[in-house]
Amino acid sequence: MEKLSMAAALFCALVLAALAAAAGGEAAVVEHTFVVHEMNQTHLCNTTKIYVVNGQLPGPTIDVTDGDTVVVHVVNRLPHGLTIHWHGVRQIMSCWSDGAGFVTECPIPPGGEHVYRFNVTGQVGTLWWHAHVTCLRATVAGAFIIRPKAGKYPFPTPAKDVPIIIGEWWELDLVELDRRMHDGNFDDNPLSATINGKLGDLSNCSGKPEESFVLDVVRGETYLLRIVNTALFSEYYFKVAGHTFTVVGADGYYLTPYKTDMVSVAPGEAIDVLMAADAPPAHYHMVALANQPPEPDPQIPGFVSRGLVRYAGSSRNKTNNGLPVPTPLMPSQHNTMPSYYFHSNLTGLAHPDRHRVPMHVDERLFFALGLGSICRGTNKTCERGRSPETIVVATMNNVSFRHPTNASLLERYYDGRTSGLYTEDLPDHPPHPYNYTDRALIPPGPMEKALEPTFKATKLRRFRYNTSVEIIFQSTALLQSDSNPMHLHGYDFFVLATGLGNYNPKTDPDKFNYHNPQLRNTVQVPRTGWAAVRFVTDNPGMWYLHCHFEFHIIMGMATAFIVENGPTPETSLPPPPPEFKRCGSNGLTKP
């Protein structure tokens, strides 16, 4: 990769600063210090060691305005390495600060420190941040709020905005959970869902209900709920009894207002909704319920957390007349169709002068998302069909991504030292087309066994600068029937359409929304369905693409996109900033 001089890097920084200033408003530098450490927390009669930032669960909220520069000093007091990823931040010309472990940097070592510095311009709404090494994001995570300049929303200004962080409570140590999944053991499950770190009163210890998250409201006011799914394993349905929502944004962009009584939020997604406190003053339950497909394992336990909306001046005994607090009626745990309809009904808030959908396509990719298997040990042949001789892996076009463990893809690419680390031949299409959504492929059988064999490799895809790319993500039924929340770092893509069954290249393009599609960094590819997205490669660097189910990441449903430099200094990735720390021989950053 051609390197830029420090003068050119300074020029790029000045250009970005000028763009932020030209956009209007006074930009600020917002600084935070994140101390990542262990602490004990007791739930369900057991004390568990967890990993947190600054003693908080969820972690601290970063609150900035469009155009600001963010500086975060991370101090790692854990006994193992980690990185922090700024999920959904475009990182224009700042790929070095993306925080994707072994993709854009090596982990911060125990006792080490690192500084992330980046600008946020052109995005407004809710994003989030999280650890990006092992399973630590289950507790090392928090909201990232970007406010509009001058506080001007395209909807009435809410009385208050409240992050609603939906997560999971794991009694198993998260580092041990990661180790087990890397060994091919995927039998562990969380004990409960959480809302803002609280298990809720449906969980109890010795008959005493767990603490619930409580949202205090005033009748007649409207509240902006910033709902983020930080869970490792599940999509969640979210409802509040007696109330409805107006969806107004997602993933840092405005949406056309959409009224609903339930929000469906997949891992990695952030959904902004307005909730009017217009019910009779009382207490009302909010519920977050995980949904899982019924196949292949209908016995997966239900994960649920219950919180409370509490009106000012109300008393449970007085205002509810001694009756139980209303609880919303939730869908079946195994009914995934409400998620499909919710996501399909969302559209972007159209802006004629910006966020135009690229109508010309330079490169078309079709990614089949499924499972496969590799033989254990050094065996070249083995029995298939979920045999003990195999390890089940996740694939894109029958390639299971082998994550580096001692080098940063970006650093080696920038230095031109890529030999033996990766290749750039990720297939554009599956090697053998088949009926991707045939439910007969879920249990082991003759057809499934023929498609199951795969391999591990670090295969990437390279794009020239300013290439218009279309990707069809196809969820398959091969050994499973999960949905797939696909997240692309460093970019937002237009979600042109989603559908059920196999994508039809002759008829399904007629369904594409070119007028006001959603602009998202994470697209929920439906269970045994498909999603069509389009974007332009205008941000050079090394960008991680992966499913946001943690087990799918570890199993290999991932890759990285290389985007080449453009023709000018301002369209080229600057050199690493002074605070960037390179990888050492042990796979951690150097002191």
TrEMBL record:
Primary location class: secreted
Record EC number: 1.10.3.2
Q: How is the cofactor bound?
A: Binds 4 Cu cations per monomer.
Query: Keyword Glycoprotein: yes or no?
Result: yes
Q: Taking every annotated instance into account, which residue ranges of this chain make up the domain Plastocyanin-like?
A: 37-150, 161-289, 454-566
Keyword RNA-binding set for record? no
Per the record, GO CC terms? apoplast
What are the protein's UniProt keywords?
A: Apoplast, Copper, Glycoprotein, Lignin degradation, Metal-binding, Oxidoreductase, Repeat, Secreted, Signal
Which domain of life does the UniProt lineage start with? Answer: Eukaryota
Q: Which Gene3D superfamilies does the annotation name?
A: Cupredoxins - blue copper proteins
Any one GO molecular-function label of the UniProt entry: hydroquinone:oxygen oxidoreductase activity
Q: Which GO terms describe its biological process?
A: lignin catabolic process
Needed cofactors, names only, are: Cu cation
Disordered: annotated segments: 567-591
Its subcellular locations are: Secreted, Extracellular space, Apoplast
Please list which residues make up the signal peptide. 1-27
Catalytic activity, reaction form:
4 hydroquinone + O2 = 4 benzosemiquinone + 2 H2O
Q: What does this protein do?
A: Lignin degradation and detoxification of lignin-derived products.
To which protein family does this belong? Belongs to the multicopper oxidase family.
What is the official name of this protein in its record? Laccase
What species is this protein from?
A: Hordeum vulgare subsp. vulgare (Domesticated barley)
